[in-house]
Amino acid sequence: MKNDFLNLLDNIDDKQIDIIDKLSLIVNFIRPKNFNEIEDSLHKIDMIVDFFKKSDNLALTISNEINLLLIESKVSTNIVNLGILSKNGFSYEIRNRFYNKFLPNPPKKGDFRYIFATLFNKKNDYKWVNKIDNEKWIEFFSSILISHKYTERLKNHIYWELIYAAEILAIWIASEEFDDNFLRLDKKLLNRDSVFISLQRDLSDLIHKLQLENVNISSIKKDFEHIDVLIEQCNKQVLLFKKKSINHGISIDLTYELERLTQIIRRLDYILALIKSFDTNKFHISLVELFKESIIKNATKNSLYELYEQSIKIISKSITNNTSEHGEHYIASNVKDYIKMFLNASGAGIIIAIMALIKINIMQNNFSYGIETLFASLNYGLGFVIIHLFGFTVATKQPAMTASTFAEAIDKDDGRKVNQKKLILLTFQVIRSQFAAVAGNVTFALLLAFLLSFYFISNNSVILNTSEVEYYLDGLKPFSAFFFAAIAGVWLFCSGLISGYFDNRADLLELKSRYYHHPLLKKLLKKEIREKFANYLHDHHGAIVGNFFFGVLLGVTPFLGYLLNLPLDIRHVAFSTAYLGYASMHIDISVGEFLFYFICVLMIGFVNLTISFSLALKVSLLSREAYFGNLFSFFKLLVIEIFKKPHHLIFPIKDKKTKS
């Protein structure tokens, strides 16, 4: 280590290399070979600190050069830009990152971002930098900036760079005043100055006071407190936008802009805290924390994956807002809701049995693959739409909605720490609801399949021949059936996303008003009927489209398997039940065999629900940046509650009447 240090001193004494290269040599010397082991790095920092504290000619020369480098650099660009989403949007950002990743920007004099990227050019630098204590970094920076020649000049430069950064961020916030997306959500912005403009104006006044010579920060304490109040109001305005967007439509662009605005307000608040505590121990600690955060942002500034992950959060947030609003309608919390859920599911079971019969007929006509896929997709798609129009419930359509409600429950807890007991209660409600819905679907799909088969057989006809019976029963056997059930679970999840997306589009495009004021509908319908029609289409826009596309996805899966030469198909609990009903009536089947196939059907339903719910919950949690917590402790609590109250998993709790 000592030899390495002596080599470092020889290299930084070279007059031919500039100060950025010399700093790179110092950082390379400190950087550990293993990013998780920093003991050597701490010793090396101590060696560098001791060297600069001796203040010999070389140490003072290097310190002077570092001071001058910082004085000539636009530190504000790094403070303002790193970690803030681009104003130009996702498509520009991905192009820019792609170019910079493979063909980096040329160095610009005074560009602090370039200096930062040059010194910390390893993608794992943030790991060891963040492991080192703040106090150690303060000691390191104090030593390399030890030169008294430029101390005051550097302090003044940093101070005014912070003020400049605050001013720029305030202007960015004020520029959102007339953003089309924000005006759509809050039209009051047109009639009065928003808090964004007030913040920029008052901060500008504060900066004028700060520019006066010999101004004492403590003397303008009330001005800072006033700015803090305005920043809090800005945060409340952003929160108001988010709440209004749920009912007025939230596009990907709007979610992106809200995320960016939140980041800017947070950064401004941080910079003002630095200005207030300037040149104090608190300031030095905050500056080191900003340095550490900048190292993290620097490591991911050209990361396409990081941008993808960030964008997925934004997209999922824009989609799941609507599903969380509808989630509670799919959870039976009392006896009345439970019975209603069962009856609605029973109606769906009847229609599904008819859809299964139509599907059997389509298969029997030996159409070409293309025509068969078209008819099957229309059968599924239109069938699910009809089920929705009648107000019936398909059991496996619920998870995408209930998962959002789960995520919302997690998100509402303080610090996003999971309230396990609260989630257990919600889990019981969801399982009960699913049981009622599955029971309704399965019972009536099976009964109608039995009745229709009995009718055909009584009239000396059959629905299925022997080979077809064997085909449909084989389709229920493990384990291929469970794999195909998982595919259906993925499509269920996708249909939930599609529903959420089109619900957002309905709000965003104000479909209610468009239908109500449509010239043709004005001629055909009276005002009251037109209003009801417009309200219905608006409220059910996402559900209708989502149901239709779910049917299409189910219909095209076998055709995709044919094109890819893969054995792809789908298994859905309600349709599998209907096929079991039709097939079992056409052969002599024992009670044991029937129970085996019936258990297989229930397992198909379990896979449908588990896959769709898991995916929907993952996206919902991602969109809220919430975390489920310890899965083991959750299941432990769940098992304990199940043993305590097993009947509550299936049967609803009676409403407790409170005495007045």
Account of the protein in words:
With about 650 residues, this protein is mainly α. The protein has 3 domains: about 1-70 and about 120-145, no CATH class; about 85-105 and about 150-300, no CATH class; about 320-495 and about 555-650, Up-down Bundle (Glycerol uptake facilitator protein). The chain is built from 29 helices and no strands. It has helices at about 1-10, 20-30, 40-55, 55-70, 75-80, 90-100, 110-120, 125-130, 135-145, 150-175, 180-185, 195-210, 220-250, 250-275, 280-300, 305-325, 335-365, 370-390, 400-410, 420-460, 465-475, 480-510, 510-515, 520-525, 525-540, 540-565, 575-585, 590-625, 630-645. Helix 16 crosses helix 28 (about 590-625), helix 19 crosses helix 28 (about 590-625) and helix 27 (about 575-585) packs antiparallel against helix 28. The longest helix has about 40 residues, at about 420-460. The chain is elongated, with a radius of gyration of 33 Å. The termini are far apart. About 35% of the residues are buried. The mean pLDDT is about 85. It comes from Malaciobacter marinus. Keywords: Membrane, Transmembrane, Transmembrane helix. It holds the Pfam family SpecificRecomb. Its main location: membrane.
